[in-house]
């Protein structure tokens, strides 16, 4: 089981615990969507967040699932430095290069 991560409507990556993915965003509004993958007929609803990216800003979201009720969600990390330190010890999943980019 893992999470299907989409950014601005485009598939970004399939991430399994304990892994992460990363991408570069242009400044402006974005929508992050996370849903459970590998489960046929799942009743879990995707979690979604909209956010504004600033030039040069590092943004970290942490995904989680509550085992009771199967609620899927994620939270924007406020302490980016600590989050990046934790991520540096995990394997990274390559992201789809086209997610989060703006068509020219």
What do these coordinates show?
With 104 residues, the protein is mostly beta strands. It has a domain at 2-68. The protein is built from one helix and eight strands. It has a four-stranded antiparallel sheet with strand order 2-1-4-5, with no helix packed on it. The longest helix is centred in the C-terminal third of the chain and has 8 residues, at 80-87. It is globular. The mean pLDDT is 83.
Largest sheet: 4 strands, antiparallel
User: How would the global form be characterised?
Assistant: globular
Using only C-alpha atoms, the radius of gyration works out to: 14 Å
- Mean pLDDT reading: 83
Major sheet strand order:
2-1-4-5
Number of H/I helices: 1
Reading the helices and strands in chain order gives EEEEEEEHE
Tell me roughly what share of residues is in helical segments: under 10%
Task: Please report the total strand number as a whole number.
Answer: 8
Distance between the termini: 35 Å
Structural class: mainly beta
Low-confidence stretches: none
Strand fraction equals 35-45%
Overview features:
43% strand, globular, four-stranded antiparallel beta sheet, 104 residues, mainly beta
Describe the protein's topology.
Elements: E1 2-7, E2 10-15, E3 20-21, E4 28-37, E5 47-53, E6 61-66, E7 71-76, H1 80-87, E8 92-93
Parallel strand pairs: 3-8
Antiparallel strand pairs: 1-2, 1-4, 4-5, 6-7
Short note summarizing the structure:
The protein contains one helix and eight strands, in the order E-E-E-E-E-E-E-H-E.
């Amino acid at each position: 089981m893992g999470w299907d991560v989409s950014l601005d409507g485009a598939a970004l990556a399939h991430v399994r615990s304990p892994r992460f993915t990363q991408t570069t965003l242009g400044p402006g509004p974005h929508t992050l969507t996370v849903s459970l993958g590998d489960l046929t007929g799942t009743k879990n609803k995707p979690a979604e967040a909209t956010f504004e990216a600033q030039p040069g800003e590092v943004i970290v979201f942490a995904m989680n699932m509550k085992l009771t009720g199967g609620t899927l969600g994620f939270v924007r990390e406020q302490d980016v430095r600590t989050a990046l330190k934790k991520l540096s010890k995990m394997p990274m999943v390559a992201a789809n290069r086209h997610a989060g980019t703006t068509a020219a």
